[in-house]
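REQUEST FORM: STRUCTURE PREDICTION
Request ID: SP-0412
Submitted by: Lab K.M.
Chain count: 1
Length (residues): 468
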Amino acid sequence: MQIVGTFIFLIGIAGLFWLDRDREGRVSKALWIPTAWLLITGSRPVWQWLGMRLDAGGGSVYEEESSIDRAVYLALEAAALIILTTRAAEAGPILRKNWPIVLFFFYAAFSILWSDYPFVTLKHWIKGIGDVAMVLIVLTEVNVMDAIKRLVTRVGFTLLPLSVLLCKYYPGLGRVLSGGGEMQWTGVTSEKNSLGGLCMVYGLGLLWRFCSVYEDRQDPVRHRRLLALGTVLLMTLWLLWKGRSMTSIVGLAMGGTLILLSRRPALRRQSAFVHVLVVAMLSTALYAIFFQSSGALLEDIGKAPTLTGRTEIWRAVLNVPVNPFVGAGYESFWLGRRLQELLASFPSMQITEAHNGFLEIYLNLGWIGVSLLAGIMVLAYRRVSAAFRSQPDNGGLYLAWLLAAAVRGLSEAAFRMLSSSWIFFLMAVIAASQVTVTSQAYEATDPKDLPEYLPKAEFGPDSPFEHP
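STATUS: Completed
RESULT:
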């Protein structure tokens, strides 16, 4: 059955790409670089796919990496930097406009000075810069939205069906037995929460594409596109349900609601309602996790009041001595003695994260890092909200990715290097900062929607969004 199932799925994946083929979309071959990066970071390390064993040399897998993984990451990042060098006229203004992100990574680089493991911190920082480089390649394409569509499709059409294949026919690869004896579905990833994050991020992207195709009545191949996108969306929902990653389910539901509502013309003129809706969603999540002592809301969605042991992990990591202002160093907390002590405290759990994105930043970069992340998020929301008013269809996607990352960050390390939620969080922030063109879909019969009332485009001569 494995051989037959594999054959059927491989033919099916090829069929999905055939159904959704687009000869008119304009993207460069350079887009294959971030595609390869996301295929690897969205699944598992190369050495695992090759069936190799990793000798951690008495340390931890988090500290060590195989030579083949190191070579692959460096090759992709070097290729990305070469491409960006040729696109300096486009990438430079984007970086200047997004100076809070640049400042965050400058500060992360300085943390090498006080890290207990400076070389490991440097390696992790280089990978973190790789995440930004991949986002910049996508956003310096001639047609940015075509590039985002192609990227989401390439990775989503590959990793999500392969996850179903591994879960169904290769349980030794697609499932793992947790320390508590529970069988968890992991798909192409190494643990169930990573699979949930993968489904959440690409599920939102594919839902956005499905809505766009559904509304494009002039597309002669609309029905076959809907078939392909709908099939993968159903796979995504099935994986989330079987994996029981409730945080990602909630993130997908909230983000998906924003995407669907953004297609409603009435809502596009009621930006205040969007703010109220986002605040209500975030407030509900915060109340359920941190303030409702009974845990009734968490139990309603299938979560224990302790969030499957997360509250104990939070208390334990906060008792580990680190400098509260600067932290242990970028992506350096889970190393050496700190890791060994925490593993000893939770013998049934192989923990390598704090299961809270904001707490994770605090442990690694201290209150300064948390403040920088908070600044990025405030600026991000302002820009994404402006993008929603200017281009509701695309802005709805950015807002969904932003909200989903924030919600996931409450119970998962959503802002770590090589994380799908972090990469698409950066994608949403930086893409929203470049939106200056008014969407035709925003024009309606309301007198206030007439051109003289609409925001004016502000293209510079070197803007990557300027259409030929």
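NOTES: The two ends are 52 Å apart (CA to CA).
Reviewed by: T.R.
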